[in-house]
Amino acid sequence: MEEMARAAKDASRAVAAASTAAKNRALREMAKAIRRRSRAIVAANIKEVAAARASGRTAAFVDRLTLDAPRIEAVARGLERVAALPDPVGETTDFARRPNGLFIRRMRVPLGVVAIIYESRPGVTADAAGLALKSGNAAILRGGKEAVRTNAVIADALREGLKAAGLPLGAVGFVNDPDRAAVRRLLTLDSLIDLVIPRGGPDLTVAVRRESMIPVLAHDKGLVHVYVDKRADLRMAEEIAFNAKAERPGVCNAMETLIIHEAIAKEFLPRIGRRFAEAGVELRGCPETLRLLPFAKPAVDADWDTEYLDLILSIKIVDSLEEAVAHIARHGSGLAEAIVTGDPKAAARFQREVDAGAVYWNASTRFTDGGEFGLGAEMGISTQKLHARGPVGLVGLTCEKFVVTGRGQVRDSRKPTPR
Question: What percentage of the chain carries pLDDT values higher than 90?
Answer without folding.
Answer: 87
